[in-house]
Amino acid sequence: MSTKRLFVAIPLPDDVKDELLSTIPTQHNRDIRWTEKENLHFTLSFLGDREESELEQIYAEIRQIAGDRFPFRMVFKGFKTMYKNRKPSMVWAVFRESPSYTEFAAEFGENLDGDKRNEPIAHVTLGRVKSNASKFVRTPKMQHIVPFELDIDKVELWESKFDDRGISYSILETFPMKPEPEEDEL
């Protein structure tokens, strides 16, 4: 049987992607592999390797979870360098804590047997420090941008693939969230 490496993602609009990419220093840094524009996203829940025969059930579950939840708002906070074994490993755009985001991610983790290790941190990975980088990589000083808000109204199921050039992603399906009630429906 064939498997796919899957995760549930929140897509970003192009203007937000452009804004985040504008923060990357123009000075070249050979130790960091910056994320391509089309790959910028929030990861809600990593599902891991799944059999293709499971896809229809996964679609149905995501459709149900997304369809039961109203849109919510995320607020950009700033930048953070993540470390692994006391060495920089990733550069993130971090968003303020959001109970809506945390609950949404937990629901996918529980119902789809996804990642349940830690409370999720709302972030977008802007770059990864290469494994062959110098031991003393300096993380870049990101350009300043005005904090912004982002309305979340859909999720997507993405597949990740690894090859010689790194990670590539493809969107398998998009799932809208429950529409806000009209004024006269309240």
Major sheet summary line: 5 strands, antiparallel
Strand order of the largest sheet: 2-6-5-4-7
Work out the helix count.
3
**Helix share, percent:** 10-25%
Number of domains: 1
N-to-C CA distance: 49 Å
- Strand percentage: 35-45%
Mean pLDDT: 87
Structural category is alpha+beta
| CATH topology type | Cyclic Phosphodiesterase, Chain: A
Choose one word for the global shape.
globular
Instruction: Identify the CATH class.
Output: Alpha Beta
How do the strands and helices of this protein lay out in sequence?
Layout (H helix, E strand, L loop, with lengths): L2 E9 L2 H8 L10 E3 L6 E11 L3 H13 L4 E13 L2 E9 L3 H13 L11 E7 L19 E4 L1 E10 L2 E11 L10
Antiparallel strand pairs: 1-3, 1-8, 2-6, 4-5, 4-7, 5-6, 8-9
Describe this structure in words.
18% of the residues lie in helices and 41% in strands. By secondary structure, the protein is of the alpha+beta class. The mean pLDDT is 87. It has helices at residues 14-21, 55-67, 99-111; strands at 3-11, 32-34, 41-51, 72-84, 87-95, 123-129, 149-152, 154-163, 166-176. Strands 2-6-5-4-7 form a five-stranded antiparallel beta sheet, with helices on one face. Strands 3-1-8-9 form a four-stranded antiparallel beta sheet. It has a single domain (3-185), classed as Cyclic Phosphodiesterase, Chain: A. It contains three helices and nine strands, in the order E-H-E-E-H-E-E-H-E-E-E-E. A hairpin with a 2-residue loop joins strand 8 (154-163) and strand 9 (166-176). The N and C termini lie far apart (49 Å).
